[in-house]
Structures are given as C-alpha cells and as structure tokens.
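Worked example

This section walks through a single chain of length 288. The input is the sequence exactly as stored; nothing has been trimmed or padded.
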Amino acid sequence: MNARKQLRQLLSSTRYTIVPGAYDTLTARLVQLAGFDAVYLTGGGYSRANGYPDVGLLTMTEVVQWISRTVEAVEIPVISDMDSGYGNALNVVRAVREYEKTGVAAFHLEDQISPKKCGHYEGKQLVSKGEMVGKIKAAVDTRRDADMVIIARTDARAVEGLQAALDRMNAYLEAGADVGFVEAPQNAEELAAIPRAISKPALANIFEGGKTPPLPRQQLEAMGYRLGIYPSQTHRAAIAAAKKVLAVLKRDGDTAAIEGDLATFMDREDAVNSAHWRALEQRYLKDA
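Given that input, the structure is written out below as tokens.
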C-alpha cells in the first residue's frame, strides 16, 4: 500500500491520528523512527528553520524541493503545507502539479490572501469565499491521483467568526476537498463544534502558545477529529536544546557537563539510515 492509500485508510478509521510536525528532513526521519503513522511538513517551521518568520517569504520552488527530499527519506505518509497556493487559482494549478510529483500524500490549502501569515498571528486577511471555492476546484481538477488528499483550511475564525468559518469550510468541502481544517478555534467548545458542523473528516492544529487550547488526544478523538497536526513541538524542542548546549560550550569551553544529554554518534547515523547507504555501497562498489 502506497503512502497516499495509507493516509486514506487512516482517515477512514474512527481513530485520532497524531501527526507530529517536522521542520526539516532529518526531523521527519525522527518522526518515523519514533513510530508515528504520518508526518506533517510545517511551512512555518521550515520558514523559521531558514531564519524567517512565518509570513510567506519562501517560494513554491524552495518548498517543493524540501518536500521532495523528505518524501524520499521516509516511508510514512507526508502531509505538507501549501499556504495559500502561492497566488490565485492558476498558481494553485501549478502548485498542485509540482506537489503531486513529489509523492506527498496530502497538502492543505488556505483562504488567506497571498502572502499569508501564521494562523495564530494577528492581522490575517482573507480572500472571498467564492475565490477560495475556485481554488479548491482548481486543486481537485488538477490532481491526477485521486488518493492524494486535499485539505481545505480556513482562517476565517479570527476575521469573520466561527459560524462564518464553518460556512466557508462546508463550501470548500462541497467543492471537493477531502478534509476540513478550521484554524485557531479559541476554546474547547469551539473545537468540539467543528467536527459536528462539517461534512467530512476534521483536522485539529495543536499549536502550543497559540489561540487553540492543546487538548489531550482522547478528548479530540471523542469530539470526532480524525487527524491532529503538532507543528511546533519538535522545533521548539530543538531550539531549547541548541540554546542549552551552546550556553554550556560558551561557559566551559567544552560540552562534557551535558554530554550524556546529547545524541551519540550512532544515534545520529541511525537517524539518517547510514546502514542502508553502506549496504548499497558494498553492493555496487565491491568490484571497483
């Protein structure tokens, strides 16, 4: 079963699937090694990994290269961020073609103007519901593999209120999107209302420090959510760990005091599947 069919199977279950975020390809490998069923490539995380805030400064080509490398590096389904499709419906056509070539299992497309902002920043602006319906239809019509999952995201809660966000979402799902993603509900009651109000599976974005309460898995599953993306946790962990080791190195001139907290040489080699590449080397270079 290929990765797209794997994700379709997860969505058909009544189980809630946790999908950790990865801000680079190595982190996606770690998500797989930890035993998760899928990985989420967070556009905000990738922007920050390149030294930018999440305000749409990276190009489609840059993001597609990252997605392609990561899909090749893991065997689990990859869900990616398409932001607002990099422009209008014509840009969405091009983006879907390029994303589909990577082998990505799913992507989400949102109704902010382009360039977009992080869903938990202030000052977001939306395209009209009609324009977004057209972009969803363009994505659906462009998709060649019907198993590739199209996730519609609306940021309307912060701009127009929850009911307008739900109305928009159902219009996007009617236009052919497979999963609904209402960004930044502001309390548990709003979170609970979303799966009941939309016509297809619901995705939750568990973003610590944002506007949405980080409810436990069991509660989200009981509400009816089928997917939960956790975009920032691995990146925040990496930032904290790097700051810690750099502070010790600056203070002591070495890292002996925290060496036991660091990954070993073999941990690092396992993370990038070095044994696989050594085996290939032995197979193809033995007669050289």
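What to look for: Residues 7 and 30 are 19 Å apart (CA to CA).
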